[in-house]
Amino acid sequence: MAVLEICLALLGIGLLIYKWSTSTFKTFEERGLPFEKPYPFVGNMAGSALQKASFQKQLSEFYDRTRQHKIVGLFNLRTPMIQLNDPDMIKKVCVKDFDYFPNHQLFITTKERLINDMLSVMRDQRWKHMRNTLTPVFTAAKMRNMFTLMNDSFAECLQHLDTASGAASGKSFEVDMKVLCNKLSNDVIATTAFGLKVNSFDNPNNEFYEIGQSLVFSRGFQFLKFMFASLVPKIFTMFKLTIFEANKVDYFVRLVVEAIKYREQHNIHRPDMIQLLMESKKESQDNWSDDEIVAQCFIFFFAAFENNSNLVCTTAYELLHNPDIQERLYEEVKETHEALKGESLNYDAVQKMEYMDMIISESLRKWTLAAATDRHCSKDYTLTDEDGNKVFDFKVGDRINIPISGLHMDDKYFPDPKKFDPERFSEERKGDLVPYTYLPFGVGPRNCIGNRYALMQVKGMLYNLLLKYKIEASPRTEKDLWGSARGFNFTPRSGFWMQFVPRK
Ligand code: HEM
Description:
Elements: H1 2-22, H2 27-31, H3 46-49, H4 55-66, E1 71-76, E2 79-84, H5 87-96, H6 124-134, H7 140-164, E3 173-176, H8 177-193, H9 207-213, H10 220-231, H11 233-238, H12 246-266, H13 273-283, H14 290-321, H15 323-339, H16 347-352, H17 354-366, E4 373-376, E5 381-384, E6 390-394, E7 399-402, H18 404-408, H19 451-468, E8 469-472, H20 481-484, E9 497-502
Parallel strand pairs: 2-7
Antiparallel strand pairs: 1-2, 3-9, 4-7, 5-6, 8-9
Helix pairs in contact: 7-8, 7-19, 8-14, 12-14, 14-17, 14-19, 15-17
């Protein structure tokens, strides 16, 4: 009897969970939108949720299958999202009628410290005020000063390659580019965002690196916690679970708050984020709290760390497969180096490297870092087409998906999309790009605020590497990056191996 009762209870619980996991699946039928059959728990995201494909692959294949519709329903796990496949619709929602869609959706509703204070998570007027406070921080003039700090980290990275690998002897050696770039990204973030000098090459177990790594939530245990929090937010909050460990967050808060105090007391100036935030805080009418200021430095872990590191890796991966492109880039790097007459690289010299810019642009297209971005509808809105005909009625609370990686791989906009072709971004051809189809840094007032910072770090790193090394394939170089990557980033599971051949 008891066994039967237990079985019935388990069956009942199973049925309830199944019902819950599919309870949203009628949404698009009811609202008259085309959609693909979703599966319990995973919706239309089976491949990426079960770690069988990267988000980019999953989402661009979904876009490819549905691109005949201007607008289509997507089940992101069990969350219904309305995907805009049409560039004009994207322009309307993200730019022209931005006031109806001013926020990102909240993937998680945790109340823990710092998360809700990050610019990317802030909403409405609070977001607007913080965006205004931060905009002066990321101007070209500010980046120009910050570049000197990055140069020190580049030099330490090269020094490490020279000594650790015995490259000074002229022999080629194999490098896991991801490990190298993660360390560099860490040191650059420490110095530019937190005012801290660390050398992760000489001192790989430094506290900043270890604590910082435990916060990156695109992988490992952090990733699982994030998925859990977004799938069952109520249970997550009910059990008082947190994405980040409080003592690790406290470490960063202390770091920034103490640095601010020390600098104020001793009148110290250093061209980094702490300095810029101190200045912006003074000029702003908003009385930002310590946490609100620290949270903006904290963003670097989520926005800059993996993205910058991955962009160097995917670009280097393309260079080793396209030796002609690498050689032409090397020529530009060499010319820049000669023009600098022994001076270190600077922001203006980076800006002048046109071919470098074409290559990075193409890398951002083909190996899109942000597979998609999203918006949240805050006022009812009727979307119309160019002739004024109604396309769809959005309701408050609707979540919108912008399929960045899908657009980037659409042969209508980028013929032969799997081909790495920097010429798409040449002076002569970049005018042919269809507006709102190339969106590596998002679109409209809510676009990426850190794009200048990212581009200067990545270009600076590649300049320094290419000046000294030719990059070639090694026996362990991944053959099928597109197919083998998992999660939010294009990182092969076996490592990002490549061969560095010292230039004479
Ligand atoms: C290659 C590197 C990067 C890529 C590809 C990238 C991409 C993006 C994308 C696609 C968005 C969403 C934009 C939208 O919804 O329209 C975004 C937002 C954002 N990014 Fe980046 N990002 C990068 C680096 C950085 C860096 C270095 C920072 C430094 C602080 C940063 C800070 C932010 C912030 C704060 C937002 C939210 C902006 C807001 O809500 O107002 N990103 N980024």
